[in-house]
Structures are given as structure tokens and as C-alpha cells.
Task: structure prediction
Amino acid sequence: MTIGLRLFISSATFAIGIALAYWFTSREIVGTFMLGFMAFALGFVATYMIVAEREANLIGDEREATIEDGAGELVGTYTIRSPLPLAAAAAVTAIGIGIVVSPTIAILALLATIAIGGLFIVQSR
Amino acid sequence: MLADSWPANATVQSSVMASTWFAFAAAAAGVAFVVLALVLYPLVRWRRRPGDAMPEPFRNNYALEIGWTAVPLLLVAGLFTYTFRAEARVDGLARHPDVVVAVSGYRWGWTFAYRGGPTIDGPSYPPAVFGERAAAPELVLPLGETTRIELSARDVNHGFWVPDFLFKRDAIAGQTTSFDLDPSKLGTFAGKCSSFCGLDHTRMLFSVRVVSPRAFIAWERGRT
Amino acid sequence: MSAAAPAFVEAPPRNDLLGWLTTTDHKRIGILYLMTSLGYFGVAGLLSLAIRTQLARPNNTFVTPHEYAQLFTLHGTAMIFLFVAPFALGLANFLIPLQIGAADMAFPRLNATSYWMFLFGGLVIFLGAATNEGAAASGWSAYPPLSEIKISTGLGQDLWIVGVFLVSVATILTSINFVTTVFIYRAPGMTMWRIPIFTWEMVATSLLVFMAFPSLAATLLLLFVDRHLGGHAFDPAYGGSPVLWQHLFWFFGHPEVYVMILPYFGVISEIIPVFSRKPIFGYTGLVLAAFAIAGLSMGVWAHHMFTTGFVNNPFFSFVSFLIAVPTGVKFFNWIATMWRGSISFETPMLFAIGFLLNFLIGGITGVMISSPPIDYQAHDSYFVVAHFHYVLGGGSLFAIFAALFFWWPKMFGRKLDESLGRWCFALLFVGFNVTFLPMHAMGILGMPRRVDSYAASGPLPALNLIATCGSYVMLAGVLLFVYNAVVTARAGRPVSNDPWGANSLEWWTSSPPPEHNFDSLPPIRSERPVYDAR
Result:
């Protein structure tokens, strides 16, 4: 079990514990719900990691590994520059401002955001 | 000058809180002194001098680490026990309060409605200038008797704060919360709004006048 | 599967404006984050000077009450959402891949998107100041019913909601990026128990962000629904509950305090060993303490609500006290790191010592106000203002300057001037304490926070005047830092890979690092690979 997985499992366990402690000392619904939901969300990540990590074998976790051990494997490519992040953030901000000042702007910005999202996928190919 | 204007500690409850302040301040000063010494000592003792060798690279000392986890744990357990007892005495409600006042905050003023008695309504708008407290509404309380305050707010959240009582309670819009005041000193004390409520939050003042029970009855008759 | 050496789509580096606008390089994004947050710090700092100027004497008319409310609302919002927290994100952006021997973050384009959302979110918040009724004026905690449409009718409050929402989403996305990068992209041999403490603290911080920030985003949406779509979640006139807002907001708001301090615990844990010439003492203890703080901080939110009368005070008081224990562990670990060391006093170390001294006071007053009978006087008063400024100003801000002086050579290849740095530290340390120490007394004497005036008799005028003088001393310190940066850019001499004799991986590569971070890596067998290789 990797340390990352252990982190999420122990956090989820802690959240369940503190939710129970809070409920039985306070009988207050809002906090109990929030803590319970937090436990659920952390547990969700932990479950995903259990499923995803079955095959994982990271070179970073091997205590005696050298740089040469990690060499030569191509795991993907980095885009070193892209205009899309700036465009995406601007479009999302325009949605926000549009919701406040003018629905037309919001709808146009939403369409732009969807288009930019599509471009992200195209760029990743 | 500072000592003259220190909170007057004018209720039975506030003397409990004052003791808590003093106990915690003493503990705080002790801890601060020890930790400060521990920070400053190495800075002087092991400051780098020309020709120093590389120091010994020790990394762990489990006994020490367990020790400095356990000691603070005991300390905060003690502080919590103290707090728990003190809070029970401050927040405890008398079974039969002598006077019940419904206090309601609004933008920007206070209403003090005595159960079976007068209602004092004091808008402090247009804003009073500091020092001109005459305009602010006055809450009159009998010395040595228990007054139940039932606190609420009409529009936004306010806060009922009398610094000389070392006490405040938030006035939440649409909800009522109760606490007791047992005044132990005669005098007039400044009250203010502690929770930001808009433009004239600063000037949302009131005053509390503690009088003898006899004078209180006379005052109540005179107002009804 | 190995993720140690991902291939690059090589492109010639661009140093023009377009290069910065389109960059997905974590180092550039980190620097953009740092510079943007410092810019917001400058604005928020000027706002605080306006606040202190108004309070220099009683019944002052430097600003109107409505302007004053906007001032402290924007000051709080900007310092918290746009400076102290995002500065840590910027630092982590720059440092995490370097400290774990990776070439970049796991999701470079998401990283850039987060940055731009943070920048725009901040601008949207300030855009409110240009509207008819001015910027948001209900405090950084925006308690309804005050922030409801019936009372805060202006567009400024809406823009505040949108801006803070954008920043909160950006923070969540960046945290996902951090955790993924640390879990997956560590260099061969860089096991989790060998990553530097700063990186560990950012993992704990990210975990806190996952737990706390969704609550903020959801709460902001609820307020927006209340204001414009006929919701009544927080409106008592229709059965809504203002206390509900306080629960949901502080469920985010208190963990947020640790989001703003854990990264800086990491900064201090990096700096003290270097200038003591010793490895960090109690590595495991420091990491466990970080997670203990993160976990416990999720169970203390209602200590901001002790005075409401609607929460279980003893429960929240107890958990708040408990947080002092892991925080104390960290403090003792730092002392033990200096113990029998060989301590030198370059500017980063001075700021780290300033952090220790200021944070000590902030921590101790924090334990005091964890006790409800004390909080009944201190809450919403200048005592609390003093407390959190000692934590976030005396603590985080000093660690921020420590980090700037320490990593500046790695970022820009030039060391900031030492003697100017010492003066900067002296001015900030003196100015800070002169400003905020008197506030403890103001609070006990009965001065509420968020007031634009105070009683003209008694000690408050003198105390306030002292505090105002201190704030201008701090301004001088900050201006000296700006001057230092300009002088260094013009006349600073290039530095070696490792100008401080530090031992984590970022000091192995050149200053500033190449676009792909590392041309070579030493074998990683401890948390001090550069030391082992020497």
C-alpha cells in the first residue's frame, strides 16, 4: 500500500471518528453532515486509489533505485506552451461576470468555454 | 492611564472570566518565557564562529520527542478542565431569574423590553458622536439580582458587548439566545455592538446602569 | 510504469510577453503566482494603511463609514484569498517539481489555467470598487443577512462572490495537481519519506484544501442563489438560518487558516537546518504533526462561533486546545534543529527567527481564546485582530519574506542584497510589533473590530496612534524590499547552484534552472541528496 493511499484511508477514518464524536457530543446536524460528507469524499478517493493502484509500481518508491533505472521510458509528452489555459480562465471568468451583469455574456462565455475545452482535447492528441 | 480604564469586572460571571484570564495569562507567560529562552539560547550559544567544524548531525531522540508531545498534552488537558468548569459557571442559567429583559438589536439601535415592565427603545441614529452617550439607550439592572437577557436581532446579526462585564453574545437575526447577568458593582458601563452590521456599526452604542434593587423598582415604576 | 523522465516536446524558449502568457512551465507559473500575489499584497497593504490612517485619531474623517467598510472587506479578502494562500501555491509550484526531481507538474495546462483563474478572480473582486455602490462591504466573512440582497444591494457583493468562487476553484485544481505530482512524479529513489518537509507540508495543505474549499464554493453558491434566484437559505424572514452560514463558512474558514500557515511551517523547516548546518530534527515527527494539525483543524470550525450560543462550546474548545500540541512539536523540532548547530544569521534566517518569535505570541494567544470564557471578551475585538495578525502577519508574512530571500537566487540567479535585507527585516520586525502588540490591550479595553472610530477619552487614542505609526514603519520595510529587488536585478552578481549550502534537490540544478529542470540527478538516499553527494 503506498503512502498516498494510506494518507487518504487514515484521513477518511479520522473523519468518520470525528463525525461520530461530534454527533454524540453535540447532536448538531450541519456539522455532522459536513464531517460525514468529508469522510465519504475522502473514502471515495481512497477507493479509487485502491482500484487504480493495483498495477502501480512507481520507481520513485524504490529505495535503491538510480536515475538509470528510470531512464528510457516514455510516459507521455508535455506541452511546453499553450494559449488555451489563459483563454479557458478568461472564458470561465466571463461566465461569472456574465451571470452577474448580463445573461447574454454568460451564455456566449459558456459556449466559448465548451469550445476551448474541446481544443484542450484536440491539443492532447 | 491603562490601569484606570481596565475592565471593571462588574458581574458575578465576569469574576469567573477574570480568573480564567489571569490563570491563562500566567500559564501563557510561563510557556512564552521557557520557549523564548529555548529559542534564544542556541542563537547565542551556537552562533557560527570562524573555523567552526561541521556540527554533529543528530536527527532523532524519540524519548525527547515523546516527552515534548506528552507535556503539552497534559498542559492543555489542565487548561481544558479549568475552562470547562469556568464556562459552566458563566453560561449556567438561573432557574428563577429576578428580572427578564428581551434585548433586540437593529440597524442601528437597541430595544430593551422588561417583562412586566417598561420598554426602552433607543435608536442611536442619526449617529451619536463618541463621548455623547446621552443619546444611546440605557439598560438598567438591579445590583445583586439575576437578570435574564433574551437576545435577538431584527435585521442583521449584531453583538451585545459590555466590556466591563468581560462578556458578549451575538444577537443573531431570527433566533433568540439567553444568558444571565448578576451585577456586582454599581455604576454606568459602556455597551457596544461587536458584530459588524453596516454603516453605523461603530456608533451602535448603549449603556448599562447598575442601581440598587430599591432604586430599580422606583425606576421601573417611573417608566411604566 | 515509470514517470521519472517524461519526454518534452522541445521548443525554443520564448522570453517575450507571449512566452509568459502561454507558458505551462511550472517555474514560470510559480513566478507569475508569486509576483501576482505580491502585487495583491501591495494593494491590500495600502488598504490597511488607509485603515490605520483613519484610526490614527478618534472621530477621524479620512474616509466615510461606507468607504471604511469596503477598505477592511477588501483588505481581509485580498490578504487571505489573494496573497497569503496563493503565495504558498506559487512557491510550491516553483519548488515541488524541483524538490522531488521531476520535470514539471503532473498537469501543466491545468496548472496554468488555475493561475489565470486566480489572477482574474482577484481582479473581479476589485472590479467591485468601480461599480456605483462600491465594492463588497460586509467583511471578508460576508455574514448574511448583512450580505443578502435586501441590505447589500450593490453589484460589488456579487462580484465578490464570483471572484472568491473563481479563486477557490483555482485553489482546488492546483491542490489536485500538487498531490498527483508528489505521489506519481518523484525521481527514482525519492521515496515519500525522503521528500523535503516543504513538499510534505504542501501535501498536508492540499489535503486540507480538498476537505475545506468545496464547502466555501458551495456556500458562495448558496448565497448567490439567495441573492438572485429567490433562495432563502440564510434569510431568517423566510425560515433560513444565519447560523447555517457561519457553520458552512467556518467549516472552510478555519482549515483555511492552516492552509495559510502549514506551507510556511515548511519554509521554516527548510531554512533553519541550512543556517544551522544540521539536518532537520525529527523529520517523521514534523510530518506527523502536519497531518495531526490538518486533521484536527477540521474539527474546530465553531470556535469562531463561541459567542453565538448555538454551538457545543466544550467540544470545539477541546479540539482547539489539542491543536496546540502538534504545533508545539514543530516548534520544539525547530529548536532542536538549531541545538548544537553552527548558526549564521543571513537575512532568510533572520526572518525565520522573526517568524519563531512572532508566531510564539500568536500561538499562545490562540490557546487563550480557545477558552470560551476568555473568548467572550476577546471575540470580535482587537484582541482577536492582534491574535490573527500575529499568526498570519508575524508568522506567514515573515516566512514569506524568509522564502523570498532564500529562494530568490534559485528563481532569478541573483542574491538579494544582504545589508538592505537586514534593514528590511529590522523595519518589518519593529514595525510589526509596534503595530500589533498594542492591539491586545485595545481589545481587552473594549474596542470592537471593524469600527471606524473609538472613544476619544481613555487610553485608546494613544494606543491607536502607536499602532498607526508602526504600520508606516512596516511600509518603509516593504518599500526597502522593492528597492532591494530593483538593485539586485540591475547589479546583482550571478550565483552558483547552491549559494546557501542547502541540501535539497532544487539546489543541485543551476540557478535559475533550465526549462527541463535537471541535466543530471545525484543518487537519492536520504532527504539531503545534495549533502550526500558532496
Observations:
- The longest strand of chain A covers residues 77-78.
- The first helix of chain A runs from residue 3 to 26.
- The helical segments of chain A are 3-26, 29-53, 84-101, 103-124.
- The radius of gyration of chain A is 22 Å.
